[in-house]
Design goal:
Number of strands: 7
Number of domains: 1
Shape: globular
Radius of gyration: 15 Å
Length: 163
């Protein structure tokens, strides 16, 4: 079940996210996040920057959120979308359900463009984004350095068509 994230979810969200920090290049953060820091991040939720979790049998299996794409004012209708799933929840349709929920909520706001930043390679994330209508719009080579390896980043976007 998809629902809005609360501060009570911070510990589980932190656990999911820290696994990616410590074991993958998917997140460029270098140091594990503390629960209090995650609570601050969740507390920024708003209409244009919602946080959602997917909960199954009382356990949060993943989270997705929107954040500022850039801090300058003219970017206010563009947000960056992000999703992380528990490593044991991959390939079960949870990501699609959670991301569709985030997208549908953002469609009801003034947001015009969604941007996803994907550390490469990441075939699962690319497949999810493209399945949901995101189109690759850019590629930056060797912009991140993690675990002593240079990491490329790709950008995918989904533009909401005005009706």
């Amino acid at each position: 079940m998809n629902r809005q994230a609360t501060l009570n979810d911070a510990a589980r969200i932190t656990e999911i996210y820290n696994w990616y920090i410590e074991n993958t290049v998917i997140s460029f953060e270098q140091v594990a996040v503390f629960v209090k820091e995650m609570q601050v991040r969740i507390n920024t939720a708003s209409e244009l920057h919602p946080w959602f979790v997917f909960e199954q049998k009382g356990i949060v299996c993943g989270f997705a959120f929107a954040a500022d794409f850039k801090s300058r004012g003219d970017y206010y209708q563009t947000v960056e979308t992000t999703i992380y799933l528990d490593k044991d929840a991959l390939g079960r349709g949870i990501g699609k359900s959670l991301y569709l929920h985030l997208i549908s909520q953002l469609q009801m706001t003034s947001v015009h463009v969604l941007v996803a930043t994907i550390a490469l390679p990441n075939a699962q994330s690319i497949a999810l984004h493209e399945k949901l209508g995101y189109i690759k719009c850019g590629h930056l080579s060797e912009v991140g350095l993690k675990f002593e390896n240079w990491v490329d980043v790709g950008y995918w976007q989904l533009i909401f068509k005005n009706e």
